Amino acid sequence: MSILVNKYSRVVVQGITGSEGQFHSKQMIEYGTNIVAGVTPGKGGKKTLDNQIPVYNMVIEAVENEKADTSIIFVPPPFAADAIIEAVLAGIKVIVCITEGVPVKDMTKAKQIVKKHNARLIGPNCPGIITVDECKLGIMPGFICKKGNIGVISKSGTLTYEAIDQLVNVDLGQTTAIGIGGDPIIGTTMKDCLALFEDDKETEGVVIIGEIGGQMEIEAAKWAKENMTKPIVGFIAGQTAPPGRRMGHAGAIVSGGDDTADAKMRILEECGITVAKSVADIGQLMKNLMEKK
Amino acid sequence: MKIHEYQGKMILKEYDIETPESMPAFSVEESILAFKKLNTSPVVVKAQIHAGGRGKGGGVKLAKTPEELKKLTEEILGMTLITHQTGPEGKEVQRLLIEAGVDIDQEFYAAITLDRNKEVDVFMVSTEGGVEIEKVAKEMPEKIIKVWIDPLLGMRRFQASQLAYGLKLEGQAFKEATQIFLKMYKCYTSTDASLLEVNPLVKTNDDHIIALDAKFNFDGNALFRQNEIVKMRDLSEEDPYEVEASKFNLNYIKLDGNVGCMVNGAGLAMATMDIIKLAGGEPANFLDVGGSANADTVKNGFRIILADKNVKAILINIFGGIVRCDRVANGVVQAVTELGLKVPVVVRLEGTNADEAQMILKKSGVSIIPATGMKDAAKKVVNAALNLESL
Fold it and tell me: Do B375 and A278 touch (CB under 8 A)?
């Protein structure tokens, strides 16, 4: 068991012939991801990646001919929202958008379409999802993961890797790790992911990594307090971030009130989440919780 | 990206939203010329800086005669304006807006921005105009009227009316306000603004609705399709180090501490700053070298960090995913050799090709301090900074 993707996922790569698409598709196939098709408008009819993967002009063709049910998007920012909407309308149910720099107004529209059609979007501006030893739908280094029972949810890419590495160092493997992205509008929230992990029989504990800006961590913590039976370790990046400054991620900006690191850490704790004050303690805290069980 | 008030008003005019007659002025001569052209008295002299709170800081004054205007212009142009948003160092005023005075009956607040929780734009108005809206939101939240706009439908006429009813407007003023709200939404979406705030929006004594201020923020991700907006960028309003860093695709923010850091990824970069603080140090900057860190980016990163004379030690923290640690290591060796670093450098490399990277650093003979894990790295860099400080 795992969440969102597994070895049966039939993946179409949107933007497969671009340099990013090529590089990461190769890496994903090496990891074992079942890539069944690629899409690049104007390049339909060709084959790519050692002549193994058919390329189509449109996502709908990949769905009809290759039974694609999952998509990963590597198209440039001006066209990314369009790619998301195309995938949704073609009937794809799990979509990961890696693209960084998608205009917010494009995303508010795409998000409405995703909601209306009950699709699941991860990202944009995210490292993707990995279900360990089954399917890598993203750009994270697969070799750092180890199969196990911890779920990981994070707004940040490299901080996800840091958490995974710490878990492995204390001999805790992962079921699925999800980078949900750091933009103001994202497809799947922290709360959504917690609910998925709560329902996953194999997952025994969850690490959530948030940052300054927005209310997502608070929403997730309040939900967890009422609904979650599995232990959670939480970390919030940006304790030293000055207010009013965008810290890299478009969404990482303290605008006053409950969106500072301190406020979020306090609310997480109030909701029963074990909060790591130092990023270096994430692994050990989860280890302690697992031993208590 | 932000722009000045006078530029914001130019945009509003393009969308047929009425603002007072006004002219920008960069000198005393232009200021006096504006007075003649406006042909009214009094006029308002408004300092043009990106930060808010200009009135309280002494950057907005009334002038009745050309003599008064000349004196005020000389005073305000070139002054360092300190407001609650500029920080204690203030901001030098280089541009003015000379504006015709308006007979105000009522002041309102009107703004559009993204509601991150609802994931759609929200249009807010209030009868409590001209004051800090944060204060109103805290003390009298019922005084803020909101409508949420479905991005697929756009703003509907009834929603604009709802806002105008909320302000208890009638007759001509009601009609004009409804029109202005619809135009504001059109302007907000067409320019890819992330904030459009008019505070105050006023009703004049003769029942007209006029935008007395215009504050815009723009979505940085959308600037590729907003050429006219990009032209309005005023680099003198931005931190020179940050502008320099952006030329190399580095995301840099200067802070007040003495421990510099260079990290890949925004989240890890923030976490690195935090752990430096927990180890007893003060971070000197946020620096995300992004997903394409190589020898060149590392070198430029060093240059930018070291331009800050407070920096007493540097921590490089890279978790290689797409970024290959061996490339970063080569960059560190090259930079240290070329720049002849005067401060200690602690290096923590993990992930893709980390072992090769350690070998490269070892073989090179450059004096860097290797670290394992973030706790170790933070401790070492803070100690290094303290040692140098005590010399």
Answer: yes
* Among chain A residues, CA nearest to B250: A248
ipTM of the complex: 0.91
Does B294 have pLDDT greater than 80? no
Helices (H) then strands (E): counts for chain B: 13, 18
**A42 in contact with B, Cβ within 8 Å:** no
For A154-201, what is each residue's pLDDT tens digit?
Answer: 999 899 999 999 999 999 999 999 999 989 999 999 999 999 999 999
- One DSSP character per residue, chain A reads --SS--TT--EEEETTTSHHHHHHHHHHHHHT--EEEEE-TT-TT-EETTTTEEEESSHHHHHHHH---EEEE---HHHHHHHHHHHHHTT--EEEE--S---HHHHHHHHHHHHHTT-EEE-SSS-EEEETTTEEEESS-GGG--EEEEEEEES-HHHHHHHHHHHHHTT--EEEEEE--SSSS-SS-HHHHHHHHHH-TT--EEEEEEESSSSHHHHHHHHHHHH--S-EEEEEE-TTPPTT---SSTT----SSTTSHHHHHHHHHHTT-EE-SSGGGHHHHHHHHHHH-
pLDDT digits (tens, 9 = 90+) for B157-171: 999 999 999 999 999
* Contact with chain B for residue A241, Cβ under 8 A: yes
In angstroms, the separation between the Cα of residue A19 and the nearest Cα of chain B is 13
Q: Any catalytic annotation for residue B197? A: yes
Give the pairing type, strands B369-370 and B345-351: parallel
Q: Of the candidates B253, B265, B373, which has its C-beta nearest A159's C-beta?
A: B265
Chain A contact set for B375 (CB, 8 A)? 278, 280
- Which residues of chain B have a CB within 8 Å of the CB of A262? none
> What average pLDDT score do residues B189-195 get?
97
Q: What percent of chain B has pLDDT over 90?
A: 73
Q: List chain B residues with CB under 8 Å of A211.
A: 266-267, 270
